[in-house]
Amino acid sequence: MATTSTSTPSPKVNRIGLQILDYRGGKTTLCAGCGHNAISERIIDAMYEMGIQPERLLKFSGIGCSSKTPAYFMSRAFAFNSVHGRMPSVATGALLANKTMHALGVTGDGDTVSIGAGQFVHLMRRNMPLIYVIENNGCYGLTKGQFSATADLGSTLKSGVVNDLPPVDTCQMAIQLGATFVGRSFSGDKKQLHAMLKAAIAHRGTVMLDVISPCVTFNDHEGSTKSYKYVLEHEERLHELDFVPSFENISVDYDPGTAFQVTMHDGSHLRLRKLEEEYNPTDRIQAMTRLMEANAKGEVLTGVFYINATAPSFVDMLNVTDEPLATLPESVVRPSREVLAQCMEELM
Amino acid sequence: MATTSTSTPSPKVNRIGLQILDYRGGKTTLCAGCGHNAISERIIDAMYEMGIQPERLLKFSGIGCSSKTPAYFMSRAFAFNSVHGRMPSVATGALLANKTMHALGVTGDGDTVSIGAGQFVHLMRRNMPLIYVIENNGCYGLTKGQFSATADLGSTLKSGVVNDLPPVDTCQMAIQLGATFVGRSFSGDKKQLHAMLKAAIAHRGTVMLDVISPCVTFNDHEGSTKSYKYVLEHEERLHELDFVPSFENISVDYDPGTAFQVTMHDGSHLRLRKLEEEYNPTDRIQAMTRLMEANAKGEVLTGVFYINATAPSFVDMLNVTDEPLATLPESVVRPSREVLAQCMEELM
Amino acid sequence: MVVGYDQKGSRMATTDVVPQESTGQLGPKRVVNDMSIQVATVNGSGSQSSNNVLLRSIFQMGVPVSGKNLFPSNIAGLPTWFTIRANKNGYIARKKEIDFLVSMNPETAQDDVKSLAPGACVLFDQPLALDKVRDDLTFYSVPYDKLVAPVCPEAKLRKLVKNMIYVGVVAQLLDIDMAEVEKALRRQFAKKVKAANLNWAAVQAGYEYAKTNLVKRDPFLISRMDKTRGKIIIDGNSAAALGCMFAGCTVVTWYPITPSSSLVETMIEYMKEHRVGADGKATFAIVQAEDELAAIGMVIGASWAGARAMTATAGPGISLMAEFTGLAYYAEVPAVIWDIQRVGPSTGLPTRTSQGDLLFTAFLGHGDTKHIMLFPTSPAECFEMAHDAFDLAEQFQTPVFVMSDLDLGMNNWMADPFTYPEKPIKRGKVLGKEDLAKLGSWQRYQDVDGDGIPYRTLPGTDHPAAAYFTRGSGHNEKAQYTERPDDFERNMERLNKKFETARSFVPRAEAVANGKSKIGIIAFGTTHWAIVETRDQLRDEYQVETDYLRLRSYPFTREVHDFIEQHDRVYVVEQNRDAQMSTLLKLDIKAELTPRLRSICHIHGLPIDARSVTDELMTMEGK
Amino acid sequence: MVVGYDQKGSRMATTDVVPQESTGQLGPKRVVNDMSIQVATVNGSGSQSSNNVLLRSIFQMGVPVSGKNLFPSNIAGLPTWFTIRANKNGYIARKKEIDFLVSMNPETAQDDVKSLAPGACVLFDQPLALDKVRDDLTFYSVPYDKLVAPVCPEAKLRKLVKNMIYVGVVAQLLDIDMAEVEKALRRQFAKKVKAANLNWAAVQAGYEYAKTNLVKRDPFLISRMDKTRGKIIIDGNSAAALGCMFAGCTVVTWYPITPSSSLVETMIEYMKEHRVGADGKATFAIVQAEDELAAIGMVIGASWAGARAMTATAGPGISLMAEFTGLAYYAEVPAVIWDIQRVGPSTGLPTRTSQGDLLFTAFLGHGDTKHIMLFPTSPAECFEMAHDAFDLAEQFQTPVFVMSDLDLGMNNWMADPFTYPEKPIKRGKVLGKEDLAKLGSWQRYQDVDGDGIPYRTLPGTDHPAAAYFTRGSGHNEKAQYTERPDDFERNMERLNKKFETARSFVPRAEAVANGKSKIGIIAFGTTHWAIVETRDQLRDEYQVETDYLRLRSYPFTREVHDFIEQHDRVYVVEQNRDAQMSTLLKLDIKAELTPRLRSICHIHGLPIDARSVTDELMTMEGK
Ligand SMILES: Cc1ncc(C[n+]2csc(CCOP(=O)(O)OP(=O)(O)O)c2C)c(N)n1
Ligand SMILES: Cc1ncc(C[n+]2csc(CCOP(=O)(O)OP(=O)(O)O)c2C)c(N)n1
Ligand code: SF4
Ligand code: SF4
Ligand SMILES: [Mg+2]
Ligand SMILES: [Mg+2]
């Protein structure tokens, strides 16, 4: 059909008819150049492209510069900026109440690995259907740059202080503890992070993404191992990611010799184009070994290390009604008069 | 020299002249047959044989049946039975104050892995000079047998309830996070546990021992994977342990083909008689891989999985005076009048 | 004040015991349906079943009873005392004196016997030879080991079955109807018929032994009455579990801790039975969290998302919930928290009762915070207040604490059957999709109605204006981040107003006043049961009339202020050291009334008894 | 009460401003050494150095000053206000009105100008054209961008250097001696000579511009006095750090949180310099813990093992420390905790000041607990109370909280130099090897001296009787596990006695009383500085004489009771919503005195100012 050239072009919309504007948030108050801002952008793009209805998304965070970011994307989604280090429990509770929602948690390395290590462990075990993004800058940005528990051995503060404790590798922990989609990316790696986030949205279960995200104000100097420069110089991509969403009816052939394809929970496909021979991201032991080797070599390994697209999430194992518990009517949640009478009878 | 046969035989003493009695504690209030009691006995024996002066030992625990046990051994040692899940911080603080003491923490799987996961992670990272014994029965004994986070997938409660969350393998976590002596044993394996504890005493750094210790009252039934029966049936020993303390001047030859020998911090030797070819307990990656394989196969693998006898502990890296901070005199800890004057000058 | 106690904490007083005219012979005096029976044993020895059978038998005879278990904080092998009080007047508080001791534990036997008042009666295991200890008591000895062998061929079981023998002996001595005993026993073992038969044989053996060998020389007797018809026996935790189920609770997250675990564990049983749909799917989720920080975090997440969510805990858990509770107060998220209080501080006495978390809970969380608390007194109130708690939490969008205690939660209480909740579930001010369509816009923290309570939406509400940003940092009416002093102050004052509004909605205090008495007593929770009896003692023994107010909630309702205004002296009775409820009252009442308050505090961990309160009150009255 | 505020929270009142007779011309009136200068900018823009230079220049001219930074809770780019008050009388509280605004932030410029009182003076960046906004103020415009280019060739640095220009302009307008400015500037940049030169050029450019282009039309002037000789400028956190160093602190464990982080970070610097031995080994350990639960756990472990150990935190940390604090109270382990209070509840306003954690901290921990609190008012008291805190913690074997706040901790205060601690370090009742050899036996929790304070040994003490078992569960005198009611009660009453003993050992409240005034004022901490000024205002403006009591600790010392007894009306002034100190007083004083207490509470997060207190007090006085 021909359209008249005088009509104003209709704005670009996604598969559910929303514009990118509908995915924006408030103005960021983070430092110019902060890696976290780039991640917010990637989240906006991924959610837009996947056509997630903003009202169907729950956003969670703890406390920190990173944890502020849910205010800077998707204002139309419901957000809970909770307390320092304990966001996983809040997210878990919300998903118990309403397992039909999409859920995204944004946290920092301090929030997750220092104060939050306990809840992190148990979130991973439960494999709750939540995308959990660690915006990892190796320091506490909001309290002015002290080392966090992901700071590498030998990394220095601006003041010259050297870190002498080993870093926690959240990806190894997550794989070991039960998360079913574990990857690492870099706030500066637009393409990889974008694909990873879209695949994350297609997954049901805990998606643990450790995204290195430099703190330009406190941890971007020479001597830091979380600076833009350091990561650019040391990044090793495990594979190239292509994500083919279920709603795009493309069935491109792929060669199992050069790519590994995973069918996601929602029917989408994640294709990992092999850069390393024989890497199988569904093999937990291989994933762990490769990560330990990378750490030993000082590589910043990125990619989707481990994926299990079919393991049930905790909330699905509970055998709860399909409708959200949150909105069940009184008639369903209050047993009858007879039930009470029977209970009383038993106690007489 | 001949002694007259009429003299009463002097009681048996250890190398510092103490009797086994000097290592005893109060009467246990745990259930008869509880695995934890056996572990207390092993601790008494090991401390006695190693000739540790009781007054030089700090005992720590959290809350649980297991955490009660420090009252049942070595009454002459100083004990701190703290709060649930947060003993590591108390032990860390005490060792900061006095790094010259021996230290032993006793905890449960609930105490360490459920409520205590956060502090556990950070204790391991710091490699504090502490023997940390998890008396692992897969349940909360003291609150009547609910599942803990080490309960295996599919393990059942007495009531028939099935555990549907994956277990946390504390040995894997410890190795990954930085502990320098990591092993697993069984409260019923007298010989192995005895040798392991003696080696632990000879080590400087965090010794993380996961000791499976059946709860006869709540978790020793058919269907439990932490029962005596189950463990006896599924135990796989990685090697046989021999411990040769530094003060015993025995220099038995050993064949590197059939045993792996580690020289400990205090000059003692731990000899691992190979049952599996090629297992090298100083190789972290191998240790992790072997553990993951064991878990996949349903083996209860025991032995010393990983050891690094030379890594410095956090408290030694702090470059603190050799005398305990706890007892430094006023003359040392209060700077002079001149120092204050100088500080004031700088602020004028 | 420090006074001497015997092992179980009855004060070792010599003057405050009502003397019984027993001479060691069954004299003319008969004490009918008024006694406390204590069974001293070790935990893990299976005596719990025996004690339940005994309790139920008396109950079935129509005599009011209560059962209190004094158990150690370990799993097996330490001394335990179970006390059954039977009282024709319906007094169910702990009785200070033990009348009838069943002594089964060699370890405590001597002490137990020594602490009895003259005239009491002791049933003991023959080898203990307790009758040598004193000569002012009535003793009966039973050769348990000899009796148990024939009825229980399996040696392993004898330790357990032995306990059933004393049931038979006691039944015979007190004249409890054996038909009732059998009924109670068969109920106890339910479908385990073999066990029931074995145990019944033991009861009979005991009964026969007593009948043949013992000569009744004590005055205590149970005689059929009609005061328990239609009543139930239940512990407060089970009542709370039922209450929560009927209150429409949908999410429970918890971490085990004595004495709260049984609340959730019972609830799991009830919910599995009555809250699973025809399709086999549950209308609830109950999740064991990794600790209390996580449990309350999950409750807050679930409530925020729209569930009726709760947790149950005890003191140490309350301490760990402080930060999250402050968040819920300030971000205005509902939460229901059951605090089954035990003795603090710290780990304290985990298996003893207390009302010691009040002050800490009232202001839980740093900064200016205040919380609604409910004080159930009985299983019936545990049931009802479950409903109140959820409604209040959602109506006021704030945490609500139900302050029960170990005595109420874990002991056996006689109660009227619960009444079905007639009022519909109240979900508070929630705006749905249609409301938003009508309104166009709304503000999360705006005081639209002048009551300080704002409106909220539930996540997932399908409207572009539905979402808002929840945070614990400064926010304005629109839920936007702000550091403006005026925004902050306005919001804090609104929260204060909301708390004031709550004053008119929480369960009202109940006054029993004749309008003439100058002395008022204020109590709450399980302390109530001692006060009922104390007031009778004061009237009967001292001719002192008192009025009484039972608190049921914090903030305090109007009745509280009125009551204090109407009395010259007001005794606040509570089970903690620091007069915590008294403190809360002082902050709330007119300053002029403060001098009227006096405190009676008990802190030894045993349920408070009437006699001690009566004595202390009379001393303070200068009499 | 809710009133209108402008953006920075000065109340938008029209009547309560002392009118200045400025007509927009430099009239006959000169306002000398009495003004508040506010610099409005964005954080991360480097204005902090400029403001320090300005502050120090005035200080060096002998004029009393204070500097308060009102900064946002983020790292860069949001509005920040720095206020310098110069006052010849030495008033250093926040002044409610701004006299001289340096407007550098386009985002807030309009609002900032609108909130000024008539007669104030505004220095603005030319393009902002603020002189169009009002006609009752004095305006000066400066073309910063034009001026900065020639002095700072490197474009990247201009944003920072721009801020130095206003220093020169202000110096010229207020008549601040440029020699003092240069001295202050060179001090500020210390060894960075190049930076100093660059910045000095900028100051001069500003000065020259003003001299040439601006005609003085406002009344404000700085003139040399002699009121700062020998004084220092320091923030409370640095003072606390010094205090802890000289108090012999050996272990610090912490988790970063605003506004407490700088306490430990400064301490690290000081300790590295002054507490490392000749052998290069430190006589201290400072460890960053993984969170506040761990930080307090480590403090308790370290104190138990004999260290003088501390942590520093703010509200959220206090919430997380509840369980461990209760353990320390009950197991009797020393601990020093600095609470640099910020605005709660929850995350609240992390960069604003408050006295809002008092009530929660006083009873921190479930069960019956009470804690010693100290209330420093000045840097000198931060220094001294550091010593008191460690001594008290060890003498009483209990946690001691030092309740500072953001205003005290992070702002710049003029102070007398600290005096070297003359009293020796007190380690309390510790039994050594020799004591044990003499005694033979001892009991950890025995009240030997009748003061409620038991003896302890330090782990490692080389004697077979030295060891004891520390636990949070019930224990008897011998530190053995017990569930006996009498043991438990006796121990709890001893703890109470110990707390009563502390009453005579904590820093005493300070009264300023003439013995005639009927009105008393009670305040503490940073509120003190407003009261000093308020009392003068009351005297000078209303001829109302008041007495004043400054609290320095909880539990309250005898002086507090006496003071209230001596006054008809006692105004308790504090910076929180719920009158928390008033509440603690009510619990402690004779009930009859309660009606005398009245509360003045401020909760907007800005340091309290005298004018507001004066107004409110006079309103409450009915005037
Ligand atoms: C209980 C508690 N402790 C401490 C803080 C102070 N605090 C705020 S953010 C933060 C660390 C943030 O680090 P991270 O999570 O890595 O976030 P980033 O700012 O680096 O993005 C800390 C310690 C707090 N808000 N709450
Ligand atoms: C803060 C807190 N929460 C809960 C409890 C109750 N509690 C006591 S022991 C325990 C679990 C103990 O399990 P574990 O550590 O495995 O020891 P076990 O008894 O099995 O040896 C719990 C939940 C407590 N004491 N404190
Ligand atoms: S301080 Fe660091 S983490 Fe925080 S906003 Fe700035 S750059 Fe980002
Ligand atoms: S309950 Fe279990 S863990 Fe506890 S003492 Fe008994 S057997 Fe041991
Ligand atoms: Mg970070
Ligand atoms: Mg266990």
Q: What do you see in this structure?
A:
The complex is a heterotetramer, with two copies of chain A (348 residues) and two copies of chain C (623 residues). Chain A has 348 residues and is α/β, with parallel strands linked by helices. Helix content of chain A is 31%, strand content 19%. Chain A has an eight-stranded mixed sheet, sandwiched between helices. In chain A, a hairpin with a 5-residue loop joins strand 11 and strand 12. In chain A, helix 1 packs across helix 7. The mean pLDDT of chain A is 94. By secondary structure, chain C is α/β, with parallel strands linked by helices. Chain C is 37% helix and 18% strand. Chain C is built from 20 helices and 24 strands. In chain C, strands 10, 11, 12, 13, 14, 15, 16 and 22 form an eight-stranded mixed sheet that branches. Chain C has a six-stranded mixed sheet with strand order 3-4-2-5-6-7, sandwiched between helices. In chain C, helix 1 packs parallel to helix 4. The radius of gyration of chain C is 27 Å and the shape is globular. Chain C starts with 30 loop residues before the first strand and ends with a helix. The chains are: A alpha/beta (348), C alpha/beta (623). Chains C and D meet through helix 10, helix 11, strand 14, helix 12 and helix 16 of C and helix 10, helix 11, strand 14, helix 12 and helix 16 of D. The complex binds thiamine diphosphate (TPP) (2 copies), iron/sulfur cluster (2 copies) and magnesium ion (2 copies).
The counted number of beta strands of chain A is 13
Largest sheet of chain A: 8 strands, mixed
Oligomeric category: heterotetramer
Terminus-to-terminus distance of chain C: 18 Å
* Radius of gyration of chain C, CA atoms, in whole angstroms: 27 Å
Structural class of chain C: alpha/beta
Main structural class of chain A = alpha/beta
What small molecules accompany the polymer chains? Answer: thiamine diphosphate, iron/sulfur cluster, magnesium ion
**Rg of chain A, Å, rounded:** 22 Å
Residue stretches of chain C low in confidence (pLDDT < 50, at least 5 long) are: 1-7, 9-26
Please state how the strands of the largest beta sheet of chain A are arranged side by side: 2-1-3-4-8-7-13-9
Number of strands of chain C: 24
Proportion of beta-strand residues of chain C: 15-25%
Could you tell me the mean pLDDT of chain C? 94
User: Number of DSSP helices of chain A?
Assistant: 12
